[in-house]
Amino acid sequence: MNSAKVSLKPEISSGFDLEKIRADFPILKLKIDGKPLVYLDNAASSQMPQQVIDRLVRYQTTQHANINRAVHYLSEVATMEYHNARCKLQQFINAREDREVIFTSGTTDSINLVMHGYGRKFIKAGDEIILTTLEHHSNIVPWQMLANEKDAKIRVVPINDKGELEVDEYEKLFNERTKFVGLIHVSNALGTINPIKRMIDFAHQHGVPVLIDGAQAAPHMNIDVQALDCDFYAFSAHKLCGPTGVGILFGKAALLESMQPFKGGGDMIASVTFEETLYNTIPHKFEAGTPPIAAAIGFGAAIDYLTTIGIARIAAYESSLLNYATECLNNIPGVKIIGTAAEKTAVISFTIDGIHPHDIGTILNQDGIAVRTGHHCAQPVMQRFNVPATSRASFAFYNKETEVDALAAGIKNVQKVFL
Ligand SMILES: Cc1ncc(COP(=O)(O)O)c(C=O)c1O
Q1: ω before 36 within 30° of 0 (cis)?
Q2: How much is the pTM?
Q3: pLDDT in tens, 307-338
Q4: Which domains, and CATH codes, for the chain?
Q5: Distance between CA 30 and CA 37 in Å, rounded?
Q6: CB-based contacts of 392: which residues, under 8 Å, 6+ apart?
Q7: Which atom, in ligand 1's list, is nearest to the CA of 109?
Q8: Beta 277-279 vs 269-272: how paired, if at all?
Q9: Which residues contact residue 290 at a Cβ distance below 8 angstroms, ignoring those fewer than 6 apart?
Q10: Ligand 1 atom 16: the closest Cα is on which residue?
């Protein structure tokens, strides 16, 4: 067995002050049963830096009121800060206009918005919706509900043994009945980065709009919705060092304007009588009721934090962590990495011969190591690889080489306990 240590490339670790970054995250100082926390469950939810926590406290202690309603000082401040947060998100994804950014409660909510707002209005009996084997359940189940309601059909793009989409097969699925494509940018279960630009362009040649589930991409790579030319793009704050309960849906203005509202209530209206309601303009048409004001402002602070570090630098550092971790795990007999795509984010799904993933997670937890075990809300991926579940280590830019070493040592310990 090759136990030689492969150090992270110096040019990547230099200029990336890891210890300073780690010091921003109070939770990373935690001990679990006396062992330092090794947090490798970032694909499920990332941790929050002090800067974002401070922003939330400042909002709650000096700026909180309901928005878009009153003329008093606090309401005006809160309305402005909420709007600023929208503009930060607009810049982050390079949307053309701020009204193309809708605050939702997260990726799941964003996808459901598109299903109700676009799908229920425009998809008809006999139409076809293309999804991929890699989708998270949140980009499967809403479309299944729609297909059942409308008598439409779902077509699925297969993946190869490395966990890469078979793009040629995708292209073959198109016909005159194809009316919508839902596409995951980065697989949460395997880390595969999909060639979405090529796939969007192909769909557009057939006049078909594309929704991108960017939950696992936005934290790890620069997103430019104009360059991608996607019609919809969704992600959640809590995977980008922000709060839970908020996310965004980007939608092209013309499409959003053509859609029906998803939820009815306050703020999404221009006028209401018992005979008729006229809807507000976008984005308000899709933000019924009091939105997650504090969380959206915290989301804006998280975007500031990440862009100060630089998403490109985050991506380069995480890629070197991925290479190191892949090498370490490949060197342990009995460990099999599921998902070996050429283009991956720092996610490693693995199995260990003869040991159930749940047991792996439990023993690793005793060493303070947090990994996710289960089907990762991507059961079709598990079915494709013929496994009920995997263990998944998912890295963020605040993880370090020694935490990869801890994972490798933890896995060997699991083998000692069970084999
Ligand atoms: C690829 C992907 N899509 C959608 C979701 C759902 O995100 P949320 O639970 O924040 O709505 C997740 C969460 O794990 C995800 O990884």
Answers
A1: no
A2: 0.97
A3: 999 999 999 999 999 999 999 999 999 999 99
A4: 18-43+310-414 (3.90.1150.10), 59-307 (3.40.640.10)
A5: 6
A6: 41, 43, 189, 347, 348, 349, 350, 371, 372, 373, 376
A7: 11
A8: antiparallel
A9: 66, 67, 266, 267
A10: 188
